[in-house]
TrEMBL record:
PTM annotation (4-aspartylphosphate): residues: 54
InterPro entries assigned to the protein according to its UniProt record, in alphabetical order: CheY-like_superfamily (IPR011006), NreC/VraR/RcsB-like_REC (IPR058245), Sig_transdc_resp-reg_C-effctor (IPR016032), Sig_transdc_resp-reg_receiver (IPR001789), Tscrpt_reg_LuxR_C (IPR000792), WalR-like (IPR039420)
Domain spans labelled HTH luxR-type: 154-219
Organism for this UniProt entry: Streptomyces cyaneofuscatus
Protein name, entry field: Response regulator transcription factor
This protein's UniProt keywords: DNA-binding, Phosphoprotein, Transcription, Transcription regulation
Pfam families the UniProt entry points to: GerE, Response_reg
Domain Response regulatory: 3-119
Length: 224
């Protein structure tokens, strides 16, 4: 049974989500929050598997709520629910630690499959779309003060990787699938999956989306 918390300041939106989720045999709603502060408190209390997090809420918004939940070490995975599929809100939500995002007009089956994917530890947003977001908002990344070129800080998370793992993280950051990575490096897809698992563990990335963000932050990948 997948436990879900719904955070949205619109009562009718919460009602609709609850009706959909509770029609499923493998999901149950453990709480509803009308703002970010309530979401943080309810997640600390119930530790749901997944939280559907609206962004624009009164008081503490969904981005800051996500940031606080991730920093607390909660096992809850955050699924941002946004109005647009490519905007600064989705970008900020992913960088805050969300495992993915969906638009509010997604089909019911898309929402349900997204929740199941996040609960299973997968990322809902395709790495290629994550890269589109990061490319679009790359000006948020810090730059070297003199030249204006991207800085190239030494990141201990990258230093912990083998050369092959670093190569694979780079192409993950470029939006490559496991199948494409296997073909490029002449590896079995199962071997690629093992490498990806090790990369996530060594870098402390919660999922593949966070690995893409790390690839940008460490300058393994630069904006297109």
């Amino acid at each position: 049974m997948t436990t879900v918390l719904i955070a949205d300041d619109q009562p009718m939106q919460r009602f609709g989500f609850r009706m959909l989720l509770e029609s499923q045999n493998d999901m149950t709603v453990v709480g509803e929050a009308g703002n970010g502060t309530e979401a943080v408190n309810l997640i600390a209390r119930h530790q749901p598997d997944v939280a559907l997090m609206d962004i624009r809420m009164p008081g503490l918004d969904g981005i800051e709520a996500t940031r606080r939940i991730i920093r607390s070490g909660s096992r809850t995975r955050i699924l941002i629910v946004t109005t647009f599929d490519l905007d600064a809100y989705a970008y900020d939500g992913l960088r805050a630690g969300a495992s993915g995002f969906l638009v509010k007009d997604a089909l019911p089956e898309e929402l349900l499959s997204g929740i199941r994917a996040v609960a299973a530890g997968d990322a809902v947003v395709a790495p290629s779309l994550t890269r589109r977001l990061l490319d679009a908002y790359a000006h948020h990344l810090p730059t070297a003060p003199d030249s204006g070129a991207p800085a190239a800080p030494s990141d201990p998370r990258i230093a912990a990787l083998t050369d092959r793992e670093r190569e694979i993280l780079k192409v993950i950051g470029q939006g490559w699938s496991n199948t494409e990575i296997a073909a490029r490096f002449h590896l079995a897809e199962s071997t690629v999956k093992t490498h990806v698992t090790r990369i996530l563990a060594k870098t402390g990335s919660r999922d593949r989306v966070q690995a893409v963000i790390l690839a940008y932050d460490s300058r393994l990948v630069t904006p297109a």
